[in-house]
Amino acid sequence: MVAGLVLATLGVLFTLDNLHIVHAREILHYWPAVLLLIGLAQILQAQSMAGMIRGSLWILFGGALLGERLNVISNVLSYWPLLLVGVGIYIVWQSFNRGETAEPQDSTARLSAIAVLGGVDRRVTSHAFQGADITAFMGGGKLDLREAKAAGPEVVVDVLAIMGGFEIKIPETWSVAVEVIPFMGGYEDKTRHTADPSAPRLRIRGFVMMGGLDIRN
User: Which of 40, 45, 137, 189 has the maximal Cβ count within 10 Å?
Assistant: First the structure.
């Protein structure tokens, strides 16, 4: 939704600039506001704490850049340690959440993973897999679903990769639908498409910027 709104707005802006009604350069000076919209959209559709933190990082980064352009914040790079604050809060939340669980549960039914300046390698063996939320910022990882069983006719994996990427492996009995928006990046579907119309469907959606996504069996 945000990507579509941004493209439509740019089209209108450049048209008005060509007609000498507005000056596009003056308006584009405030482009970091787009990052705030992306972060807000991520928070509104978040289904886990990882999704909330991901949206908050977008808002933090966009707000810092916008503040610098509005001369409210100077030397925006001085605030990069706030990213560590966000990751630290997420780790603390995970530790408390594990402490509240008296009995071991199937932790792979719904998976959340964040790779910041590093990598993650997750293998899912759940027989009631519900979906995943994976994020990579200057990092990457692997998500192996070949031993998983879908909890329903369709499961969704949300992907956000900024200067990084993921490799997702799925069972040969699953069908796959990719709804990823690449920006200076891309994705490749190398899976063998099943002819069974009743096969479980994996829907992969998200955004890839200066990175890649590889889907295979």
Answer: 137
Residue 181 in any domain: the answer is: yes
Residue 157: name the closest of 180, 141, 137 by CA: 180
> CA-CA distance, 15 to 51, in Å (whole number)?
36
The reported pLDDT for the residue numbered 70 is 78
pLDDT digits (tens, 9 = 90+) for 145-195: 888 888 888 888 888 888 888 889 988 888 888 888 787 778 888 888 877
- Residue 174's identity, in one-letter code, is W
Q: Where are the beta strands (DSSP E) in the chain?
A: 110-116, 119-123, 131-137, 140-144, 154-162, 165-169, 175-183, 186-189, 201-209, 212-216
The answer to whether position 144 is within a domain reads yes
Q: Is residue 81 in some structural domain?
A: no
Is there a contact between 143 and 122 (Cβ–Cβ < 8 Å)? yes
Distance of CA 9 to the CA centre of its chain: 23
pLDDT in tens, 16-55: 888 888 888 888 888 888 888 888 887 887 766 666 777 7
DSSP state of 46: -
Cα gap 63→138, rounded to integer Å = 20
Q: Counting every residue, how long is the chain?
A: 217
Beta-carbon contacts of residue 42 (< 8 Å; ≥ 6 apart)? 51, 54, 55, 58, 160
Count of domains forming the chain: 1
Q: Which domain holds residue 202?
A: 106-217
